[in-house]
Amino acid sequence: MDMHTVVVGTSGTTAEDVVAVARHGARIELSTAAVDALAASRLIVDALAAKPEPVYGVSTGFGALASRHISPELRAQLQRNIVRSHAAGMGPRVEREVVRALMFLRLKTVASGHTGVRPEVAQTMADVLNAGITPVVHEYGSLGCSGDLAPLSHCALTLMGEGDAEGPDGTVRPAGELLAAHGIAPVELREKEGLALLNGTDGMLGMLVMALADLRNLYTSADITAALSLEALLGTDKVLAPELHAIRPHPGQGVSADNMLRVLAGSGLTGHHQDDAPRVQDAYSVRCAPQVNGAGRDTLDYAAVVAGRELASSVDNPVVLPDGRVESNGNFHGAPVAYVLDFLAIVAADLGSICERRTDRLLDKNRSHGLPPFLAHDAGVDSGLMIAQYTQAALVSEMKRLAVPASADSIPSSAMQEDHVSMGWSAARKLRTAVDNLARIVAVELYAATRAVEIRAAEGLTPAPASQAAVAALRAAGAQGPGPDRFLAPDLAAADTFVREGRLVAAVEPVTGPLA
Length: 516
Fold this sequence. Notes:
- The chain is mainly alpha-helical.
- It has 2 domains: 5-200, Fumarase C, Chain B, domain 1 (Orthogonal Bundle), CATH 1.10.275; 207-408 and 420-512, Fumarase C, Chain A, domain 2 (Up-down Bundle).
- The chain has helices spanning 15-24, 32-49, 75-86, 96-110, 119-130, 149-159, 175-181, 193-196, 202-232, 242-246, 251-264, 284-287, 289-311, 335-363, 386-402, 424-458, 465-476, 489-500, 503-512, and strands spanning 5-8, 27-30, 90-93, 134-135, 138-140, 164-166, 172-174, 319-320, 326-327.
- Helix 3 (75-86) packs across helix 6.
- The longest helix is centred in the last third of the chain and has 35 residues, at 424-458.
- One of its GO terms (cellular component) is cytoplasm.
- This is Histidine ammonia-lyase.
- Its main location: cytoplasm.
- It is found in: Cytoplasm.
């Protein structure tokens, strides 16, 4: 585990902090300012709890049951009960990194001093994360409104020493046993604390932040594979000239064109070998790669703005304000996050689609400008990469289904008190699948394009230095080059890992310089 430490304070948390905690096991510390803010807001809640007037979440029931005033002797039971009853998730377990992001982001909001939670509860949340204890959270149970309720409830249940959790060794055990093994005392929830632990957009936000990190790598990787495909197809790099993109000044388009141009620098293949089949222009999937990749990049930038705003937010209901008021609000509604999660699924699907079209062009002897059918060694005896493209096409088709927006749906809950919901958790879950699929799609294009570039090199043409670096690194990673048919799945798996881990970008940057 990475021993980098993330300090949780009263100000916004960064996306890098989320990834460090969720994926790399960074340790967490509460700042002095956070502890002071927690204590101050708790004094406000305690004062309100002592008054006869009902305050939502402090001395009342929840949701459609908010009209019932709860007497002091039942309030601890009320907080325990909301956690137990709301821990009603079903389906497969959610990935460890998602649960860690969920817990960390809830701690971030708790530490803001706007929730009324005691400092010792926040410290226990940090202790559980630092111990590598991961609550068992299930796929289904959040509507993306009133918080990611069921997922967060399963996390709160672990803090109480109830339910199941995964230890740092990966074994699932009763949460109480895991807490005891790490010297962590279960929390005894008091007024408002159960509600405060459940009421946030933390799951969908954590998945958004991690998807953005993954997509940044995949968009740069797709610029590289588009350049390799252009080169293998003997296309022209003139369409990447900066002056052409300056007259349509979408920022991402210019970035993608520049990335491709730097990958192709020094190529002996681009634009010089078209005498056998003269072309005035390359096909759209080749010529318009910067426009498609760039539009996706601009979408990532917008989604990052939304994520940044949400990371700077304190999402709870009710909230404790600095002037001592405790006010109900609707900030838990996941619409801002849900919309960009769906938007990212759309652009990811389109990026996958254009990658697949270039792969198909590389394999079709009628459109590949002299490459062998399916890049096969002995076409007819060998099928080459024919079925690799089938696999890629199946992934693209799935991506299109995943691009259907979840946020366009809503279903009423809590006896019509919560009558419009965001479905942001669902948008986040399908985006994770889409990102996984996109990595595989880019990997198939990479595998086909590098094979095609090697075939051109064997004919005496000289690929760009960056292309040669990509080919060499991919082959060293276990994805083999041209030759007779062989068991192809291991090669594709190696290419997938190569792309997913950022190794394609790392392979070419010593030649191109840093790519955006």
